[in-house]
Specification:
The protein is of the alpha+beta class. It has helices at 32-54, 56-62, 66-79, 127-141, 158-166, and strands at 23-26, 84-90, 93-105, 108-118, 147-149. It has a five-stranded mixed beta sheet, with helices on both faces. The relative contact order is 0.22.
C-alpha cells in the first residue's frame, strides 16, 4: 500500500489552480467507489516514479498489479471502523479524501494520517490543504498532541512532502533498501 498525497504529472500548466469551494464531510458508503477511482488516477504518477526508482525487476516483485492492490487498500482503509475518514466535495462530488487512525508512537498516542488523495483535476486548488487541516483538527479534538504522516522519498511523492512541510510537519528521513535476489 502506498499512502500520502500523490503529485500531478499531466498536461495541466504548472502552478496553482484557483481555489475551489469544497465541503468536507464524513465518508459515506456511497462515496467509496468514487474515492477508489480518483485515488488510482492520483497515484498513477507515484507508482511510475517508484518503478523508475526501484527498477522494473524489484518494482515487479513489490507491485505486480498495483492498481488492484491499491484499490483494495483504499477501500479497506475507507471501510475500517477504527479509521475516521472524510471526503472533500466539489459540486456534491467526492474529489479528495483523508483517513486518520490513532496509534501508539513510542511513548505517546498519535493521530496517524493513513491516506490522503486528491483527484488530479482538483490538485493545486487547496483541496489537500483543507483535508489535512480537517485531519489535524480532528486529531486535536481527540486530545492527541502528535500527528504523524508517512510518504515516500521518491520524486513522485515530492508534492506530498511539500504539503506536509508547509503544514509544519517535521520530516524524519528513513531509508529502506531493496535488492532482488
Amino acid at each position: 500500500m502506498v499512502g500520502g498525497a500523490p503529485g500531478w504529472r499531466g498536461s495541466r500548466p504548472c502552478g496553482r489552480l484557483r481555489r475551489v469551494s469544497t465541503v468536507i464531510r464524513r465518508l459515506e458508503d456511497a462515496d467509496v467507489e468514487a474515492v477508489v477511482a480518483f485515488s488510482l488516477r492520483a497515484w498513477a504518477p507515484v507508482f511510475a516514479s517508484l518503478e523508475a526508482e526501484l527498477g522494473p525487476k524489484v518494482y515487479g516483485l513489490l507491485f505486480p498489479d498495483w492498481r488492484s492492490a491499491q484499490a483494495y487498500a483504499v477501500e479497506a482503509t475507507c471501510r475500517a471502523s477504527e479509521n475516521d475518514v472524510w471526503v472533500a466535495l466539489v459540486d456534491d462530488r467526492p474529489v479528495g479524501f483523508v483517513a486518520v487512525g490513532f496509534i501508539d508512537e513510542d511513548a505517546t498516542r498519535a493521530g496517524e494520517i493513513h491516506m490522503i488523495a486528491v483527484d488530479p483535476a482538483h490538485q493545486g486548488a487547496g483541496v489537500g490543504d483543507s483535508l489535512m487541516q480537517r485531519a489535524v483538527t480532528e486529531i486535536k479534538a481527540e486530545g492527541v498532541e502528535l500527528a504523524v504522516v508517512a510518504t515516500g522519498g521518491d520524486p513522485g511523492h515530492a508534492p506530498a512532502r511539500a504539503l506536509y512541510q508547509k503544514l509544519d510537519f517535521n520530516p524524519l528521513h528513513l531509508v529502506r533498501y531493496y535488492r532482488k535476489l
